[in-house]
Amino acid sequence: MDREPGRVQRIAALIVSAGMIWYMLPDHHRELIRMRMVYVAQRAAARVARTEGQTGMGEELAGRPGVAERHYTAAYAFSRTRDAFGRALESMRP
After folding, report:
1. Within 13 Å of residue 79, how many CA atoms lie on the same side as its CB?
2. Of 17, 39, 59, 78, which has the fewest beta carbons less than 10 angstroms from its beta carbon?
């Protein structure tokens, strides 16, 4: 009776395998991976902030100030997130 592992077992095996690989990496490789992940998150937050700001400007010019305000609020939140990632990245650098 060969039974395929279920979805939960597959996910658990993937998590355990990733954890094992992570702890087998040298410290400097782990730090480099962390820094790259923070950098990618910072760039993504910057891109979304820029897009939301531009959309807000378009909505404002189209005469929809309520919708524009929501986009401006989202742009501000994403720009603050981008800045937080930037500070985190600076604190990681030697």
Report:
1. 11
2. 17
